[in-house]
Amino acid sequence: MPMRTPKKRGRAGYMISAVAELYHLHPQTLRLYERVGLLKPSRSEGNTRLYTDADLERLEVILTLTREMGVNLAGIEIILNMREKMSEMQRQMTAFTEFVQNELSRGLHSMQRKPSRDALVRVPPPRVIRVHK
Questions:
Q1: What local confidence, expressed as pLDDT, does residue 76 receive?
Q2: What percent of the chain stands above pLDDT 70?
Q3: 14-112 adopts what CATH topology?
């Protein structure tokens, strides 16, 4: 089923009726997803649910899991939580990799500037050892 972009209702997001119509859902289904914690739409001053683009992306994942893969709500919650944890781990790994790269380049730069004569442990130059076969 191709996904279409719903018409915006104000700057904050999409109203529940537009989202329900777009994704061929009953509004009660969207309310259920909110009640069990799968979706967390924002609210207008009049307490109307407003779905952001991020909410719609998450809804598409939920619908793929339910409609195409037959996953129940408890399974969806586990999968979504795992996806969030994996995204956070990816962000942490990226930050760590950048940190290590920066530290390595700083270390190489400082090694090029001054010799290692003031090292704590002196290491003799390497020797070549011949092995007879």
A1: 97
A2: 82
A3: Multidrug-efflux Transporter Regulator; Chain: A; Domain 2 (1.10.1660)
- Residue 77's contacts (CB-CB under 8 Å, 6 or more residues apart) are 36, 37, 38
18, 20, 24, 21: which is closest to 1 by C-alpha? 24
How far apart CA 51 and CA 8 sit, in angstroms, is 10
Q: What is the mean pLDDT of residues 9-37?
A: 89
pTM higher than 0.70: no
What is the enclosing helix (H) or strand (E) of 51?
A: strand 49-51
Distances 94 to 8, 99, 105, 108, 114 between C-alpha atoms, Å: 35, 9, 16, 21, 31
